[in-house]
């Protein structure tokens, strides 16, 4: 026997040994699937291993679906696994939907899972409705504050019962949208009320009005009911706003009064300056009187007796001024 024959024999032996190892490695999965009525060929199991797909997940999911009477090809499960989807969760969701008589094909369930939604939780919520607190206390806000037309603030807590809408899960809005819309509806309803007392007397008017607006449009949920859990009376916002307005008006009037006072003071100073100016003119005019007297003496228009008579009059005037409290030379 030649050397090439031994080489071929060794290679063939290694190949057979490899196939035997693969066969015994996947024999348990293959046999379990065969006995469960969810047959998966040995070649497919080896192909999954080569494509880095977990064969155990695919086989377990197929067995689960087969036992529930749902026929899903292993290729679809493998494709979803390669797309980074949760095959087991999708399979559980399909089984739960089938038991609850909810139409949910595999393609839609896979799309919901790949969209980042919890498809199993969605099916459970569709069967068992979920209660959402409005507002969400985990966000740090515990009441929805709204003000009625009479200015009284009301603090409202609501609970929204929703059911998952399987058909709208892909592309539908989340719980945050439901909470925001319900909060907006509560604020609008309370704000349109004439008095806070009417809201306290009939809190169900809020839930009825908000529920009638169809707030679940475009969301992944169907609103079953909106219930008002609690209503508390808050601050008198209207009175506070009126007080703030009065304070603002007072400051404005004070500013206008200060402006008028400053203008009056400026006018007073101008009048004082004008008086001083006129007084200076009087002094200048009085300074010309002796010159005029001297000129009258020289021209012969004023005699000595006339001069003494003028001096007596001036002395009498100064005496009267001093008695009256004015400075000499200044008539009152």
If you had to describe this structure to a student in words, what would you say it looks like?
There is one protein chain. This protein is an alpha+beta fold and 332 residues long. The protein has three domains: 13-123, no CATH class; 129-289, Tetrahydropterin Synthase, Chain A, CATH 3.30.479.30; 302-332, no CATH class. The chain has helices at residues 3-35, 42-50, 55-67, 74-82, 87-99, 106-114, 119-127, 175-191, 196-201, 204-211, 237-299, 304-324; strands spanning 130-134, 144-147, 152-164, 221-236. Strands 1, 2, 3 and 4 form a four-stranded antiparallel sheet that branches. It is elongated.
- Level-2 CATH architecture of the largest domain: 2-Layer Sandwich
Portion of residues within helices: 55-70%
* Structural Rg: 52 Å
| SS field, number of helical segments | 12
Provide the residue-averaged pLDDT: 83
CATH class of the largest domain: Alpha Beta
Instruction: Quote the beta fraction.
Output: 5-15%
Poorly predicted runs are none
Number of strands: 4
Largest sheet: 4 strands, antiparallel
CATH topology of the largest domain: Tetrahydropterin Synthase, Chain A
N-end to C-end Cα span: 158 Å
Features:
4-stranded antiparallel beta sheet; alpha+beta; Tetrahydropterin Synthase, Chain A; 3 domains; 4 strands; 332 residues; 12 helices
